[in-house]
User: Which sequence fits this backbone?
């Protein structure tokens, strides 16, 4: 399963460039189905989740090639409307193929998705949105069969600003007849990137980044070339790595605006942060202060995908912090592992009370989900002695490109063992 062995205590110093965003590239890869032509996508991170989705595209009949961090997807010709089951069960975000396939072929059969075990994660909003566009959806023996003669634009009000549901509806609605509006849409930067990609191939979408998205359906699409936005969660993770080791790191090629909610909390904890056009520099010369409350919220609130990493930092802070996880009901699995490292954490439903300790201690810990795994690595960087973080291939490598190598380049004592 792969493990990282970390000898804690090294102060991180230096600079690094941030890879393209996983959560932006996955829906963009799904969108490459829509044009039935070539999509050239730059700044694609080299990640397990990306490989899984690209292999799924290949198995339904797309051709692809990688040149460095650029992938070219050719979706010409008829594709197989049966999405392979195993990868869908392994990676929840593959459900995003549903909207794109339905839009282009008017039929798709896909199994119910799996993914990180961080909550129930239903897909009711995806399905009700597609139904409102005219899809008939049958759920049978673990499969979802979606079909229609034609999709028609409609007004769709989401009960919750779900990222995946917003994307799935956009991917289907670009091929619908007439206008679709999504109200209470997710406002994440990855939605804006998807809008940009789709518009470059001929779609007519406005409003992404606000809570109302308007999509005028079109009948033809063309080749597209696009560069994926930098990964704001990866950037946030390295910012915490600098903070937890009392280091000084320059994080390059990011969109600082996207990580505002993260750097604002790091600022509260006493880190010095300088913001430039595409870079930030972060330094933390003394033990961090506790941050009173960290409550996860849809963008532009504090991201749930940074809750675990921030918790690792607060485990070492001066004082007590309270976390409130409002997005996913089961996203504190990393807390049990941090406790093995000497952290003082109590969980009460959706709240976690974290009393900072003087020192974390190295231990053998298990990553149970992607961001929780990253949090254990961060804790290991600050801990006294050796930390072994297990299940690295299964979780951490789904969302971080060469995390061990990049941390080593900043001065961490970290090695990977198969
Ligand atoms: C995306 C991100 C994930 C991030 C999350 C929230 C990708 C590939 N993943 O996941 O990293 O943590 O946004 O920022 O982009 N929900 C329903 N019904 C639905 C859909 C969602 O009840 O049909 C609930 C979920 O169970 C969850 C909440 O809505 O409690 C947020 O989910 P959503 O925004 O859809 O997250 P994902 O798209 O799965």
Assistant:
């Amino acid at each position: 399963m792969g493990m990282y062995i970390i000898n804690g205590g090294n102060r991180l110093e230096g600079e690094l460039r941030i890879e393209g965003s996983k959560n932006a590239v996955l829906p963009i890869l799904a969108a490459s189905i829509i044009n039935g032509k070539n999509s050239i996508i730059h700044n694609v991170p080299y990640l397990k989740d990306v490989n899984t989705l690209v292999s799924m595209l290949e198995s339904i009949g797309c051709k692809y090639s990688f040149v460095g961090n650029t992938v070219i997807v050719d979706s010409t010709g008829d594709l197989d409307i049966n999405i392979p089951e195993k990868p869908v069960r392994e990676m929840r975000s593959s459900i995003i193929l549903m909207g794109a396939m339905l839009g282009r072929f008017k039929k798709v059969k896909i199994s119910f998705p799996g993914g990180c075990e961080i909550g129930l994660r239903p897909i009711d909003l995806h399905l009700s949105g597609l139904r409102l566009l005219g899809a008939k959806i049958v759920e049978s023996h673990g499969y979802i069969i979606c079909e229609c003669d034609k999709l028609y634009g409609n007004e769709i009000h989401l009960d919750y600003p779900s990222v995946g549901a917003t994307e799935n509806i956009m991917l289907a609605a670009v091929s619908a007849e007439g206008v679709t509006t999504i109200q209470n849409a997710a406002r994440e930067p990855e939605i804006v990137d998807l809008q940009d990609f789709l518009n470059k191939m001929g779609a007519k979408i406005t409003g992404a980044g606000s809570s109302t998205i308007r999509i005028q359906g079109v009948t033809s699409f063309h080749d597209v070339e696009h560069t994926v936005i930098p990964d704001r969660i990866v950037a946030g993770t390295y910012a915490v790595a600098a903070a937890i080791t009392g280091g000084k790191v320059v994080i390059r090629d990011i969109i600082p605006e996207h990580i505002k909610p993260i750097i604002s909390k790091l600022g509260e904890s006493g880190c010095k942060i300088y913001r430039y056009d595409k870079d930030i520099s972060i330094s933390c010369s003394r033990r961090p202060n506790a941050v009173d409350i960290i409550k996860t919220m849809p963008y532009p609130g504090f991201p749930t995908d940074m809750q675990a990493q921030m918790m690792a930092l607060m485990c070492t802070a001066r004082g007590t912090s309270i976390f409130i996880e409002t997005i996913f009901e089961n996203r504190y699995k990393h807390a049990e592992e941090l406790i093995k490292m000497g952290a003082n954490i109590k969980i009460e439903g959706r709240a976690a009370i974290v009393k900072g300790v003087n020192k974390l201690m190295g231990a053998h810990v298990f990553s149970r989900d992607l961001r929780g795994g990253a949090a254990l690595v961060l804790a290991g960087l600050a801990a006294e002695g050796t930390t072994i973080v297990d299940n690295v291939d299964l979780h951490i490598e789904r969302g971080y490109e060469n995390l061990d190598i990049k941390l080593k380049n900043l001065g961490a004592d970290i090695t990977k063992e198969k």
User: Anything to note?
Assistant: The mean pLDDT is 95. The chain has two domains: 3-19+230-417, 22-227. The two ends are 7 Å apart (CA to CA).
